[in-house]
Amino acid sequence: MNNCIFCKIINREIPAYIIYEDDDVLAFLDIEPISKGHTLIIPKKHYQNLTETSDELIMKMGVINKKIALNILNKLKPQGLNYLINQEAIAGQVIFHYHQHIIPKYDAKNGLTINQNIINNDSYNLETIKKEICIK
Ligand code: 5GP
Ligand code: ZN
Fold first, then answer.
1. Best label site of 14, 46, 51, 114, fewest CB within 10 Å?
2. Cα 78 to ligand 2 centroid, rounded to whole Å
């Protein structure tokens, strides 16, 4: 993709602090980190989001996710991690090249803070929704 920032990072057209690389996957530090060690993991082939990405790559990225997460836990010693994937602008996606965030959590007030809007269950029938989205 011509104008994709992450493709440019893959092609070394713009710099990044790369922490992992193999034939299919790259991981580098986020330029605007939410916390120390905030990392982005991307496929080298351009896909817009998770649901467009091949199953094979998603499985491979899952294993690399774990490897990078363990390394961050061992070296930077956060108390926890948030794994984040945004899909579409409404959900916060800014770069439309599939990426997974790993965001170390060092204390409750810093790092990623999630504002959950719990919906009213009376007007929202879980049994109906289960029927709608159940995969059998
Ligand atoms: P999104 O909101 O799309 O899930 O996340 C995109 C992430 O990419 C943001 O956290 C943003 O800081 C990061 N980012 C945007 N441009 C660059 C860049 O040029 N280099 C690096 N390393 N990260 C970037
Ligand atoms: Zn791209």
1. 114
2. 30
How far apart CA 111 and CA 38 sit, in angstroms, is 9
Distance 14 CA to ligand 1 centre (A): 13
**pTM of this structure:** 0.95
Catalytic residues: 99
Q: All domains of the chain, ordered by start, with CATH?
A: 5-133 (3.30.428.10)
Which of the ligands is closest to the CA of residue 47? 2
**Residue with the two structure tokens 């029938």:** 125
Please check the confidence at residue 1 and state whether its pLDDT lies above 70.
no
* Separation of alpha carbons 61 and 71, rounded Å: 15
List pocket residues of ligand 1, CB cut-off 6 Å.
5, 16, 28-32, 40, 86, 92-95
Distance of CA 51 to the CA centre of its chain: 13
Q: What sign does the CA torsion over 106, 110, 111, 116 have?
A: positive
